[in-house]
Amino acid sequence: MNDAADTSPFLQREILVNALYEAAELEHNLMCTYLYAAASLKEGEAEGLTASEAEAVQRWRRVLMDVAIQEMGHLVAVWNLTSALGASPRIGRANFPLDPGYLPAGITVKLAPFGPDTLQHFIFLERPHGSTEMEGPGFACERPYARGTARPHLTPMGRDYDTVGVFYERIGVGLRTFVERHGETIAFGGDPALQLATEEVNLPGARQVRCLKTALAAFTASRRIPPLRPPFPRRPTRCCAVHRARKGACGSRTRMPSPPWISPTRATRSCCG
Fold it and tell me: In Å, what is the CA distance from 178 to each residue of 10, 23, 158, 166, 218?
């Protein structure tokens, strides 16, 4: 897959905005997968769990909900940046299961109940570039394909990336180049009043974007793009949190052939009404 090191700059606003639209859909869909997994867990002793199981399940749910809230912050950061560039934020998303081509073949995003395989899938999605983490069983790409090319192009085109972090690094490089060519006044022509702020939502990504510095600060708050260019952004906090949840789910005291903490229909009821 393409690497951030050989990225062609996004010199056209349309191409940069199109990448932000994909980022918005990606964050929205990732948020849904975490919420679905959390919603698949049973609710305490009233649903047949022992006291120790109920405590563990509550801890796992809390980890997943915290990560889902982080995804909401990332989504708000993408919305604000899109609005700052003078475009309308992408609110919608494709329905599950996603059709091939919406994301790179190596990035699988689908709804699945809580379990060790699902947690390993989350860890794989959150891994830093160059990680040796393996994809969770049952989540591997079913139909390999390639999106776009590394050559400069005039119209928006989806391109492959190895990790979510590499994708955001690519957007950061394109944003810097776009501002360097056109200047901040032309680049950030959107009305700041149309952006979400911390007074309206308590999320780390809710920072108004008025210039390149504030644009990068919004991503820094959501731990996507550092203010300077390191080799590749890492997301250790989230990986560690999901790792801890997976370790608990696979522990000898709670690991069972048919997990008692899962309610197959709960997630569908909670997420679909």
Answer: 6, 18, 18, 18, 17
Q: Where are the domains of the chain?
A: 4-272
With beta carbons less than 8 A apart as the criterion, state whether 128 and 165 touch.
Answer: yes
**Closest C-alpha to 246, from 80, 65, 112, 116:** 116
CA distance 241 to 70: 12
Q: What integer is the mean pLDDT of 197-211?
A: 88
What is the rounded distance in angstroms from the CA atom of residue 135 to the CA atom of residue 123? 8
Burial, 270: exposed, middle or buried (Cβ in 10 Å; 0-12, 13-18, 19+)?
middle
Question: Is the pTM above the cut of 0.90?
Answer: no
> Of how many residues is the chain composed?
273
Residue position matching structure tokens 């081509």: 101
Residue whose pair of structure tokens reads 């690497």 in the numeric block: 3
Buried b (16+ CB within 10 A) or exposed e, 60-94: bbebbeebbebbbbbbbbbbbbbbbbebebbeebe
Which residues does residue 167 pair with via DSSP β-bridges, in sequence order?
A: none
The torsion angles phi and psi of 262, rounded to 5 degrees, stand at: -100, 135
- SS3 assignment, position 38: helix
Q: Check if the beta carbon of residue 128 is closer than 8 Å to that of residue 163.
A: yes
Where helices occur in the chain by DSSP H, the ranges are 13-39, 51-84, 116-126, 164-182, 184-187, 212-221, 236-249, 266-272
Q: What count of other Cβ atoms lies within 10 Å of the Cβ of residue 206?
A: 22
The answer for residues whose C-beta is within 8 angstroms of residue 120's C-beta and 6 or more apart is 133, 134, 135, 136, 137, 246
Question: Would you place residue 86 in the very low, low, confident or very high pLDDT band (cuts 50, 70, 90)?
Answer: very high
- Please state which CATH number belongs to domain 4-272: 1.20.1260.10
DSSP assigned state of 41 = B
